[in-house]
Amino acid sequence: MATKRYNKRTKRGRTKKRRNNGKKWVTAVSAADTVLRKTGSVDKARTTLRTQALRNARRLFGSVGEML
User: Fold this and answer.
1) DSSP character at residue 18
2) Percent of the chain residues past pLDDT 70, beyond the cut
3) What's the pLDDT at 4?
4) 6-17 pLDDT, tens digit each
């Protein structure tokens, strides 16, 4: 049977892991906007938009067969 001390330790560990998981998503539009502001090239921004959208789709759904 678990002791009171053991339960406190596991609770503390679980909450600490949740707090450190603060990774933010990079949206395709914001990535393209950043590239457009830096370079001024619409073609590079369009390419960045498509590649970032593909990366985000892979994060959500696993690997995707074709490039957009």
Assistant:
1) H
2) 60
3) 62
4) 665 555 555 555
DSSP letters for 29-40: HHHHHHHHHHH-
Contacts with 64 (C-beta within 8 Å, 6 or more apart), sequence order: 54, 57, 58
For residue 56, count other CB atoms closer than 10 A to its CB. 15
Predicted model pTM: 0.59
Secondary structure of 2-58 in HEC code, one letter for each residue: CCHHHHHHHHHHHHHHHHHCCCCCCCHHHHHHHHHHHHCCHHHHHHHHHHHHHHHHH
Question: Which residues make Cβ contacts (< 8 Å) with residue 27, sequence separation at least 6?
Answer: 52, 56
Q: For residues 13 and 26, is the Cβ–Cβ distance under 8 A?
A: no
> What per-residue confidence (pLDDT) applies to 41?
95
